[in-house]
Write a structure and sequence with these properties.
The protein has helices at residues 40-50, 82-88, 91-97, 108-119, 125-130; strands at residues 9-18, 23-31, 58-65, 71-79. It is α+β, with helices and mostly antiparallel strands and 137 residues long. The longest helix has 12 residues, at 108-119. The protein is elongated and about 65 Å long.
Length: 137
Amino acid sequence: MADNSAPVTIRTRKFITNRLLARRQFIVDVLHPNRPNVSKAELSERLAAIYKTDKERVVTFGLRTIFGGGRSTGFGLIYDDEASQRKFEPKYRLIRSGLMEAPPKTNRKLRKERKNRAKKFRGTKKVKAAEPPKKGK
């Protein structure tokens, strides 16, 4: 059933050249019979080949497989250059594409304790309350 070498057909529609955001944007229709789905990486490579651009500038998101399988629809963007991509793309998509590093996560309990400590103060003292307590005292 799941054959990764099975043929995939990619069609784009509602193609718009958005000069203000320095990108081309479109809806991607992917036909993939005999295959569960197509990865975003493979989709980016194929779209880059079709539109003769670098695969790092291609961003795909919002892909949904239509009920019954064999067909997926999503949204695609091709940025003109890396600077405009960094400027206009949301941070979470920059992290996904590897252009930005994810901020370090603190655990949930510490975040909540810090928030609740800060609630007890007003103004500039609030910043000091949000800092983690000193271990020495």
